[in-house]
Amino acid sequence: MVNIEHLQTVRVPASNVYEALTTADGLSEIWTNELIIHNQIGLINEFRFGSHDITKMRIEELIANKKVVWQCIDSDPEWIGTYISFDIQEKNGKSFITLRHTDWREVTPFYRSCNYNWAIFLYSLKSYCEDGEGLPYHKRKF
User: Fold this and answer.
1) What is the pLDDT of residues 36-93, one digit of tens each?
2) What region holds the Activator of Hsp90 ATPase homologue 1/2-like C-terminal domain (predicted)?
3) For every residue of 53-122, which 3-state class applies, written as one string?
């Protein structure tokens, strides 16, 4: 199995980061504004990227201000069965977010594209948390 890992530092408390990753307001500014978000383990979050591109993530773990874990249950076939986690550690008023996208079957062109786009996701998260405006899908140039 192959994994993607990125680390981002954000100059806000962990509670701000956790809220951004677990609410419709936050995720619509970070990732896509076409979404259905829940904040309960076992429920399914839905993210749309255009009219026919939907990603469904089951919430596997929520530890307030520390961790969010999703399992992809519907999306591009390469994503199905993979896990996306956000580990948040706070120190001196800063948050250190480790994003992991684990259990890829192999390195493919799509894997490489997603690796890049997860870095953009973390940049968007940082911008949203620090400046109040992220860079979601509908504002990006591809």
Assistant:
1) 999 999 999 999 998 788 999 999 999 999 999 999 999 999 999 999 999 999 999 9
2) 12-129
3) CEEEEEEEEEECCCEEEEEEEECCCCCCCCEEEEEEEEECCEEEEEEEEEEECCCCHHHHHHHHHHHHHH
Sign of the C-alpha dihedral computed for residues 21, 135, 82 and 35 taken in this order = positive
| Amino acid sitting at position 10 | V
State pLDDT tens for residues 72-86: 999 999 999 999 999
pTM of the model: 0.95
Top CATH class of 2-136 equals alpha beta
Single-letter residue type at 16: N
Which amino acid would we find at residue 56? Answer: K
